[in-house]
Amino acid sequence: MKRLYRSRQNKMIGGVCAGLGEYLDLDPTLIRLVMIIAVFGAGAGVLAYLVAWVLIPNEPY
């Protein structure tokens, strides 16, 4: 079963975008670009990232 985790290896800030990329089988750079657009477009991207950072657990070792 596939689980959503924050990445430990491919992280820039909190590993949220890399974890979402691994979970959705997408390039983490694409997720990061969408997040940047959300930050500057609607302003809700920062809040969404912070909530995801708190709710998504770290990848197990």
TrEMBL record:
Pfam families, sorted: PspC
Localisation: Cell membrane
GO cellular component terms, semicolon-separated: plasma membrane
Annotated coiled-coil segments of the chain: none
Keyword flag Repeat: no
Topology class, membrane: Single-pass membrane protein
Main location class: membrane
Key words, A-Z: Cell membrane, Membrane, Transmembrane, Transmembrane helix
Transmembrane segments: 33-56
Phage shock protein PspC N-terminal domain residues: 2-59
Entries under InterPro entries matching the protein: Phageshock_PspC_N, PspC
Protein's recorded name: Phage-shock protein
